[in-house]
Specification:
alpha+beta, nine-stranded mixed β-sheet, 6 helices, 9 strands, globular
Length: about 240
């Protein structure tokens, strides 16, 4: 089987989960929605181009290897928003706040991020895909939109370094070696990135050379980007120990 494999590392990333109230939680590794968003941005597909968004969603199967979930950090926010009686159609944040001060309300929220996490991603395409793996590889090397990891405040900390590999299954594909991320010694880099040998594989579809230890349901299958609608999907997981 052919896969497109790339790595993700950043000082900060936010892998959104279902949000309740004022808390915006982050998963420990990127879900399907995050990877599809990264690919769509690289291909230059607008969030409002529902036709191409749907084609990409139907074409791609995603697998992730979590080398390190990073460290959880929380950011506390206070945000001003106009009351319900304010104008609904505005063109900018400045216009939104251009009301009398006594008509402004304050929203309190806490947002979660993963600091110094490291993941490898493998992409497999359906036979009916309008793109080839080489198209996605070229797009990740020269993206149409600037890539970010969950939030615009979370840029990449290292090149994605995409490459096409042939492998017998998910585990072999996700075991590709990438260049070192830092000039530190291997042991110092392991300590900085908290690489302890505990890895997690998460994938959809057939694993090939790996068996699922558990079945998980994630609410990260995009239905409509413009309306911000998602549904649930089945995801296989396998936890093990490996030397990094």
């Amino acid at each position: 089987m052919d896969f497109l494999v790339f790595r993700i590392y950043a000082p900060m990333a936010s892998w959104g989960e279902a949000a309740v109230g004022g808390t915006r939680p982050s998963a420990t590794y990127p879900g399907r929605s995050a990877i599809l968003g990264l690919l769509a941005g690289a291909l230059g597909i607008s969030r409002h181009d529902q036709s191409r968004q749907t084609s990409l969603r139907q074409a791609v199967e995603v697998a992730v290897k979590q080398h390190s979930p990073g460290v959880l950090i929380r950011d506390y926010h206070t945000i001003q928003v106009p009351g319900r009686t304010a104008a609904k159609h505005v063109r900018s944040r400045r216009d939104e706040l251009a009301v009398r001060k006594d008509r402004l309300n304050t929203i309190l929220s806490a947002r979660e991020y993963r600091c110094d996490g490291y993941w490898t991603v493998a992409i497999r395409l359906a036979d009916s895909s309008p793109w080839a793996l080489a198209d996605l590889e070229a797009a990740l090397r020269r993206p149409g939109f600037i890539p970010f990891l969950g939030r615009k405040s979370c840029p990449l900390g290292a090149p994605l370094d995409p490459r096409i590999v042939t492998a017998g299954g998910i585990r072999e594909a996700l075991s590709v070696d990438f260049p070192r991320l830092t000039s530190l010694t291997k042991e110092d880099e392991r300590r900085r990135m908290r690489l302890k040998g505990d890895v997690l594989y998460a994938w959809e579809g057939e694993g090939g050379d790996i068996d699922a230890h558990e079945l998980h349901h994630r609410h990260d299958q995009p239905l409509h980007r413009g309306r911000w609608q998602f549904t649930s999907r089945r995801e296989n997981r396998h936890r093990t120990r490996e030397e990094n």
